[in-house]
Amino acid sequence: MSERTFRAIYRRGEKYILASTPDLPGAFGQGTTIEEAREDLKAAIELMLEDIEESAREDAGDAILQEELVVAIG
After folding, report:
1. What is the tens place of the pLDDT at every residue in 6-60?
2. Which of 22, 25, 50, 67 has its CA 20 to 30 A from that of 43?
């Protein structure tokens, strides 16, 4: 199992603390505390990454080449 680091942003909502990450648009969490919001966001990220990996495996089924690319950012 590999690890990846995500930036987390927490905002105060009317009833909950809302968590999101700009590193994976669409991943959100919430909780009554920052700790709960953090755990909820982590769970959302894990589910999204599992879905992305599964889709990538399905898409690679008839590929003629598959490789990893390293891209410099910034």
Report:
1. 999 999 999 999 999 999 999 999 999 999 999 999 999 999 999 988 887 787 7
2. 67
Amino acid making up residue 14: E
The answer to whether the predicted template modeling score (pTM) of the entire model surpasses 0.85 is: no
Could you tell me if 27 and 39 are in contact, meaning their C-beta atoms sit under 8 angstroms apart?
A: no
Exposure of 70 in the CB half-sphere (CA atoms within 13 A): 0
Place of tokens 């080449």: 65
CA distances from 17 to 33, 44, 61, 68 (A): 6, 15, 41, 37
Question: For the residues of the chain, what is the DSSP string, one character each?
Answer: --------EEEE-SSSEEEE-TTSTT-EEEESSHHHHHHHHHHHHHHHHHHHHHHHHHHGGG-S----------
